[in-house]
Model the fold of this input.
Amino acid sequence: MSITRIQAAIEPLRTSLIEHPLYHDMREPAALRVFMECHVFAVWDFMSLVKALQRQLCCVNVPWIPSRYPEAARLINEIVLGEETDEDGQGGYASHFELYRRAMRQFGASTDGIDQLTMALQSGQSLTAALSNEGISPSIRAFVAHTFDVIASGDLCRIASAFTFGREDLLPQLFQRIVDELHARNGSGLEIFQYYLKRHIDLDSGEHGPMAHQLIQSLCEDDPVRWDAVEEAALAALEVRCNLWHSIHSEVLRTVRSSVAASKTE
Done:
């Protein structure tokens, strides 16, 4: 049992995501705004995956007691440092979610949907109630619900797998595609977004990705049951990501068609 086995099992789904036509169709500013307005929910719920791992691997209660997984605790704490309080490119620090939200506002994408969700949660609403907002599409709702189902399972190996193979291990290649498209367009108003993408590519491929693999290895060791759970969770995470990408792509295409139709009537 090894990381190599998991990578082989998920390769078809990874390839379909990396080669998804969504990236090519985000050349228009309006299309990219649609993508950001949907994708920000995945950026947000990723932080809950990170914190769920930290909560299980480290002691976050008082009185403090030693972790059962000191190596894994060190790894997740290093990852949290980068994800929750990264350099913001302006001399300060911010979570990657906050960076993404700033990028949206700079580019003119609406933050209303994600802001309503976070405000509802801050006011004490349950996640289910907060997600019931009619402005949140069914595919986004399903994606976020899946993430929190994995978290609610309490299965450390499954949570780590969704984090590693559904997010950390996947993101560098997905974001590289988006950066390539941005460079091809040379659009303005994307400075914060490009910084956000660069930070993710640098951290995920250079530091966090390898750390996440070490985390999986240290948790599963030679236990075949744990490795089976990792594979199952990885496949499920990628399948729900594929569904989200298909839905966003459909919305992007509708936006592009509307933009073309509007330009013809001018």
User: Anything to note?
Assistant: The two ends are 61 Å apart (CA to CA). The chain has one domain: 3-259. DSSP finds eleven helices and two strands in the chain. The chain has a mean pLDDT of 90.
